[in-house]
Amino acid sequence: MRRWLVDLWEGVYTVLLGMKITWRHLFTRPVTLQYPEVRWPLPPRSRMRLFMKYEDCIGCGQCVRACPVQCIYMKTEKRPADLPPAWASTGHPIKLDVQVFDIDMSLCCYCNLCAYPCPTECLYMTHEYEFATTDLGQHLYHFAKPDAELLLEDPKKKAAPASPSQASSS
Amino acid sequence: MDLTLRLLKDLFPALAEAPAWLQVTLAAAIPALACFTFVALGPLVYVYAERKISGFMQDRLGPMRVGPYGLLQTVADTVKLLFKEAIFPRGVDRRLFLLAPILVNLGAFLPFVVIPWGGRLQPADLNVGVFYVVAVSSLATVGTIMAGWASNNKYALFGAMRSAAQIVSYEIPALVVLLVPVMIVGSLSLQDIVAAQAGGLQNWFLFRFFPLMPIAFVIFFTAGLAECNRTPFDIPEAESELVAGFHTEYSGFFFAMFFMAEYTEMFVISAVSAVLFLGGFHAPLPELQALGSVPLGWFWLLGKAWFLVFVMMWLRWTVPRLRVDQLMHVAWKVLLPIAFALVVVLGFFILLTPTAWGFPWDRFVGWPITLLVAFLLLRVMIRAVRWSRGRAQELAT
Question: What's the rounded Cα separation, in Å, for the pair A149 and A146?
Fold first, then answer.
């Protein structure tokens, strides 16, 4: 009998206690963010879709070697001699003509390992994460631009004329 | 019928000259239509309210997309359900399969006949009103079992059998407790029961015989919760263990019918509890009974019923689902003995004239009983605290 009364009391008491808790939650602010209108602010170093600034690429292929899932496809050729010499905006001379630079984002594992070795920092991860498509093939991004306007002057030569030969020889 | 007829005649004096058959037909058709509309459109509101409230209780927003604040969400859902194909799986007993949702709905619809919305605003004042409500709302169980059986699906049958066991168990405490207001009034007519609670808050049955009637109310409400398969007693349609219980195989419009019946039943249980214990259509203060010449009875009953519906939703997000054996334990070993004891004790007090030995029993309770109960509760509380402390220490070591 005592057990029964204790059980009864505990049952009623815990239900009331639970109701108090749910009642309190009825008036707490909802944590929902209404996604398309309101967005969660991204942390500054979020790793989302890759982007490559073609004009700065020197075709060194370090990103291709770094990629653990082999999702970067690159094809380079020696820059034809009849073309004027070109430089990346960081001052690296562009000696290779990057004909293909494709990134398959459906394979990418967002590790950011390709961005670290890039000497000109032309390959980096953006904050763009809404690139869902209906076709997987659309996740293959082509970054190579045959008609890109490359820098035809060494940017370092203007900024620091003290060491023009170093920049061109390295 | 007589009440409605008189009301209609007062509202439209020209009706008195109409032929008798027209009067009777109108007096029958208008309340029926009103009830049907109320019942059919009510679930739109309840489902929206349920989703919103559950959202808020879980710190979410609930539906927000369709219409402002998601107001049209349930409309959209209903339209979707109506346009969906009604699938009849192989092996289904077609006739019973079709009959089941109709029966379930009948059990939910019919109690509206006797629910009094005002002194004269009642489709029919049956002299066996309480009995009628109980009898008719049990029809839904037949429909539930029928749905489970006809579906030819083991989960559906499990749900149906659980539902049968549950309702058979929970009707007994509910009915026993139902006797209490009936004993006080001496009539089964809901109109009489409401009339006995006229004149303000202190006359509501909930507040008479103070510690006893609230217990009766809680027992009735709990049993009602079980009868309309709401959490924590939702084992017949436990989504997580039985897929969806008895309506697993239903789709489209027939599923919508089950949904409608379920939410209507919720409202019916709440409205009946309000009528029996919370003063029905009477306002908490007699001055609030009418706004000028507009009677507000319907407003008060609706308010009370909706408040109880809200409590049901509140409980849903508070209490986890009971196991089958716990369910039976609660019904037979907890609610039923308390209900019987209540009927005996309250019967004794009701038989005493309200002012026996110069003491107003009716109003001021058995004070001794209040003190006794308080003392007992305190003792039990202390015991429980001590016990749980000891248990905690046991677990800690």
Answer: 9
Tens digit of each residue's pLDDT (9 = 90 or more) over B147-195:
888 888 888 888 888 888 888 888 888 889 988 888 888 888 888 888 8
Summarised one tens digit per residue, pLDDT across range B196-220 is 887 777 777 777 776 678 888 889 9
Task: Using an 8 Å CB-CB cutoff, list chain B residues near A23.
Answer: 314
Please answer yes or no on whether A31 and B59 come within 8 Å at the CB atom. Answer: yes
CA dist A37 and B72 (Å) reads 20
DSSP-derived secondary structure letter, B394:
H
Q: Which residue has the tokens 């349930």?
A: B74
- Cross-chain residue pair B317–A30, CB shorter than 8 Å: no
DSSP conformation class of B88 = -
List Cβ neighbours of B4 (8 Å cut-off, separation of 6 or more): B27, B28, B30, B31, B120, B122, B123, B124
Reduced to 3 states, what is the DSSP secondary structure of residue B336?
helix
> How far from the centroid of its chain's Cα atoms is residue B198's Cα?
21
Token duo for residue B370: 């209040």
% of chain B at pLDDT higher than 70: 93
Residue B380 Cα, gap to closest chain A Cα (Å): 6
Q: Nearest-CA residue of chain A relative to B56?
A: A26
- Nearest by CB to B56, which of A10, A15, A26? A26
Q: What is the mean pLDDT of chain B?
A: 82
CA–CA separation, B54 and B225 (whole Å): 17
Q: What is the DSSP secondary structure assignment for residue B134, as one 8-state letter?
A: H
